[in-house]
Amino acid sequence: MNELDTTQAEQAAMRRAIVLAGNGPHYGVNPQVGCVVLDAEGTTIAEGWHRGAGTAHAEVDALSQLTPEQAQGSTFVVTLEPCNHTGRTGPCAQALIEAGVGRVVYAATDPGHASSGGAQRLRDAGIKVVGGLLEDEVEELLEEWMLAARLHRPHVTVKWASSFDGRAAATDGTSQWISGPQSRERVHVQRSAADAIVVGTGTVLADNPSLTARTTSGDLHDHQPIPVIIGKRQIPGDAQIHQHPLEPLVIGHNDLHAALSEMFDQGIRTVYVEGGPTLASAFIAQGLADRLYIFQAPVLLGGDKLALGDLGVSTLSERIDLEVSSVENLGDDILITAKPIRKGA
Predict the structure, then answer these.
(1) Is 60 buried (19+), middle (13-18) or exposed (0-12) by CB count in 10 A?
(2) Neighbours of 83 (CB within 10 A)
(3) pLDDT tens, position by position, 124-165
(4) Which residue of the set 10, 47, 59, 274 is catalytic?
(5) Phi, psi of 60 (to 5 degrees)
(6) Is 113's pLDDT higher than 80?
(7) H helices within 22-157, ranges in order?
(8) What is the mean pLDDT of residues 196-223?
(9) 41 tagged catalytic
């Protein structure tokens, strides 16, 4: 949008609202949203943000700090279009209408089929609405949630650790540990940021993982990903996965598109895939990997224990190009963050 449609005070308020949005949890079914309320002189009179599913949305959080007189005619600056549906809380658009606010400025349009339409509802009630202020910044902040809302499947991160020559294990199958302690610590932080951690039955049978997110001292992170197991093979009753603090979600087939739909229906919006070469390759080959975390250790292993298997690439013209967003040193290791470039995107 043209920033001339907004005042300097509103532009500054939106930058502040983006910061406030970051206070909310980055996991779960709801997005991070921040809100700043301005009076007629452009002075901030309230701030709010969403603290997670079931709690007040950012606009209602800010409203709760105002008297009816303060709310009347005020300007609400919010990072996401006010919602227009009733879930665990009521529609924010209606709350703003009932409060008698005079103007709403938002950054990104809500892509949800059920929750969108708040801007039009506000306009129909006679409230001036301006959208698109700092939209790119908010789209970046909400990248994972936006993708999930638009595609009706979780955002997928695929992770693997390998030697410099692309091996995930030595010839005899030993793989603990290729990467160093700083890389392994980062993996647990990444796990704790996801709604679910996904592996195949082969990984569960071969490695018997716990699939928890742990600190360096061995304590559990405050937020644990739901363990999801994909595959047709039976999981033993004494597998460590059954000791996870959350009930595992077992998907007894290998259809990844259907599996992601099932996870979405369970409220899962972000998944972290570290289920070995077979599962990682399947997600990438089917165009379902949205982000890659590639941990590379400065060792050479040789042999046939590759980190990735068949990707459906039979000739160079079919290659999967990557867009690298960052390269980071973690001790002796290197962490590459990238995303596949989808042809035609």
Answers:
(1) buried
(2) 27
(3) 999 999 999 999 999 999 999 999 999 999 999 999 999 999
(4) 59
(5) -70, -35
(6) no
(7) 58-63, 68-71, 92-99, 118-124, 135-141, 143-151
(8) 86
(9) no
